[in-house]
Structures are given as C-alpha cells and as structure tokens.
Amino acid sequence: MTKIGFIGLGIMGGPMAANLVKAGFDVTGYNRSRAKVDRLVEAGGRDADSVADAVRDADVVVTMLPDSPDVEAVVLGEDGVLAHAKPGTLLVDCSTIRPDVSRAIAERMRALDAPVSGGEQGAIEGSLSIMVGGGAEDFAAARPVLDAVGSTVVHVGEAGAGQTVKAANQLIVAGTIELVAESLVFLEAHGVDTEAAIKVLSGGLAGNRVLDRKAAAMVRREFTPGFRVELHHKDLGIVQAAAREAGVAIPLGAAVAQLMAALNAQGHGGLDHGALLKLVAQLSGREEV
Ligand code: NAD
C-alpha cells in the first residue's frame, strides 16, 4: 500500500487527506495545530508530531500549505521533508505558490507542483481540478493519489507550469467574483428580486460557477470561508508578478488585485473572497466598511 505523509490539514488539506484514507492509502498527517491532526485520526489516518515523523516512511508526501515561505520551510528547511524523507520520495505540492519556488524545489528533489481548484466543496467531494507541473513519469506515479482527490487531473507541463495555470485560474475567479458582486449590488439598488435574477442569469451566457455556488451566500452577506480574502490577495500578487515577467498587460486583473488588497487592508482577510461584494456595496454608499 502506498504510504502518504500529508502536511497541512486545513480547509482543503483536511478533506483531501480524509479522501486519501477512504481510497485505501495509508495516510500519516501533520499540522501545526493539533486539533486538525485529531480529525484525520478520526477519519482513519495516523498522527504525526512533526514533519519528520510524517514523512519518514512515506512513498509520497503531499503538502497543502498557505504560501510560498511555508512550503519552502516545510520542504527545504532544517527539519523538513527533504532532510527526513527516504531518497526518491515523491513530493506532490498542492499549495498555491510562486512558480519559481516550485521550480527551485523540483531542482532539489523529485517533485510535482499540483495546485488545485474547486474550493472546500471540491475537496470534500474529491472532485478538484488539479493542474500538474513536472516530469511525465512522476505524474504517472502520482496519478492514483491525484485521482483520489480530484476528478479533472491534467499534466500541463514542466515544473512550475501547474502554478502558472493556477495563477490564470485565480485571475479568472477573482474577476468573475468582482463582476458577480457588482451585478448583485446593481440589482439590489434597482430593487430587483436577486434570487430570480440569479436563476435566469445562470441559464444564459452570463452563467458561471461563482453565480451557482457563491451568489446566494453573497446576497445573504454570509462570508464564512471557503477561500479567504488573504489567500486570494496572495494569489493576485503571484498573478501580477508572473504577468510582468511574461510582459503581459492584465488591466482588469490589476484592478481586481487592488480591490482585493483594499478588502484585506480593511481587516477582512479572514472572510470568504465573496466579500468583494461588501466593498462594492461600500463604494456605492450602500454599506458601512
Ligand atoms: P488553511 O489555512 O485552511 O490550511 C493550511 C494549513 O496548513 C493550516 O491548517 C495550518 O495550520 C497548516 N500549516 C501552516 N504552516 C504549517 C507548517 N509550517 N507546518 C504544518 N502545518 C502548517 O488554508 P487552505 O484554504 O486549506 O489553503 C491551502 C492552500 O490551498 C493555499 O495555498 C490556498 O491558496 C490553496 N487553495 C485553497 C482553496 C480554498 O478554497 N480554500 C482552493 C484552492 C487552493
């Protein structure tokens, strides 16, 4: 049986690790806060007290951590994956981080960058979209693990390519949320029944997953994450740097990056990114900060 060491059992990593247990893998989990490890044990996994403990016997190590410095520390740090895993262990990093950090890690050990899309719901259902960068043989080796947590699993290129595709994903999602938020505030200001509007808009060319999955909660001002504003703010930084590196102009992306930055600066980093609606309502003089 493939032994998996899983590090980072948060909103996404928790249900992903549980799905790996369900698929029959032997999963040992580590998280900085202990309660999340206990949840994995309840789901049938094993607990670890450190990164070293989680990866020592692993064939595959999966990481699902917030940001580039977290992945660098956990993978390359003194007490990290590279220092304690068996030679030849395959790292599957599902975190959303900078493509250059993924490339640097892949120079040091067998590694795939495998960021995901589909949100908490996709993680729970095991229906994530996974964009994978790295070697073809490593991709083939990781396939059973990826298939246990995702339903659309695509090898998109060499190391770092998965992160580049994920950056494009975050650009589309941020822009879409902003336009849905603007549309909802616009409809509210006109006194239109937003529920009826969402229903009919979903059936036409304006239909999209944000409208299907998030709009109702946005109208109710329910912003429990989900995907936190602070993480999307991080991702739009990655998008802007990567666009600059490629010499590509992203005027709408830059605008939405500023709006996300404002929401974060207002102290709303812990809310779901659907909270862009708060900002639109506030800019329109319809709500307090
Ligand atoms: P989260 O904050 O809920 O989970 C991260 C977990 O990592 C936390 O439980 C934290 O305690 C743990 N952690 C942090 N540093 C650690 C360390 N040094 N050692 C051990 N554990 C550590 O975040 P999340 O929403 O699960 O997101 C994780 C990654 O997935 C991010 O890169 C995010 O951008 C990406 N992502 C999130 C979503 C989403 O909808 N939430 C969707 C797609 C991608």
From TrEMBL:
Domain 6-phosphogluconate dehydrogenase NADP-binding positions: 3-157
UniProt cross-references to SUPFAM superfamilies, sorted A to Z: 6-phosphogluconate dehydrogenase C-terminal domain-like, NAD(P)-binding Rossmann-fold domains
GO molecular function, one term: 2-hydroxy-3-oxopropionate reductase activity
Any one of the GO BP annotations: organic acid catabolic process
Alphabetized InterPro entries for the sequence: 3-OH-isobutyrate_DH-rel_CS, 6-PGluconate_DH-like_C_sf, 6PGD_dom2, 6PGDH_NADP-bd, HIBADH-like_NADP-bd, HIBADH-related, NAD(P)-bd_dom_sf, Tartro_sem_red
Domain of life: Bacteria
Pfam families: NAD_binding_11 (PF14833), NAD_binding_2 (PF03446)
Gene3D superfamilies: N-(1-d-carboxylethyl)-l-norvaline Dehydrogenase, domain 2, NAD(P)-binding Rossmann-like Domain
Annotated catalytic residues: 166
Transmembrane segments: none
Keywords: NAD, Oxidoreductase
Domain 3-hydroxyisobutyrate dehydrogenase-like NAD-binding: 160-279
Protein family per UniProt: Belongs to the HIBADH-related family.
The protein's name: 2-hydroxy-3-oxopropionate reductase
Organism: Amycolatopsis sacchari
